[in-house]
Amino acid sequence: MKLHVGSGSSPLEGWTNIDVAAADGVDCALDVRRGLPFDDVDFIFAEHFLEHLTLAEGSVFLRECRRVLRPDGVLRISTPNLDWVWLTHYKHPSEMSEDEQLLGCLEMNRAFHGWGHQFLYNLRTLTLALRHARFETVSTHWYGESETAELRGLERHERHADLAGAPSVIVVEAVGRRDPEGDFDARIAPYVRDAEVH
Q: Rounded to two decimals, what is the model's pTM?
């Protein structure tokens, strides 16, 4: 079984397309924040979806993905890269005119909260979150590329010019099962609690 989470108006043929609302091409309308009613899943793909969850919701979703996947099942995530957003949208105020400061402020806030975004990851934070969710191995990939045939050419979302060492979109594949890493809890737990309070 192959799950495409957050399919929206871009369903994938041969996949079970999941979205929160029923629409053309959506095979299963459900709120994945309440769990995934599946077992023995081969692949899960989520493109520009994770950033629409809070940090706390994202942590739960990733653990749920690990739970429903087969031991050798693969989760492929594609999400905006916070490092790219920072490097392309903002400079030190002393290096900007007043108009650039205004535009930088507006663009940064849109990147964070426009389109329903809740939390943006950089590669380090996403990797820690996946390892805490009990994935053994996390590997980075280029947009549309994978060593696994079923996971090639899936991305369809708009792209922007990449920067050296900071692609506009983080694409990772997570596989395997491990004990959770304790250091993620120690460093991230206060932020997760804050997110749940507000």
A: 0.86
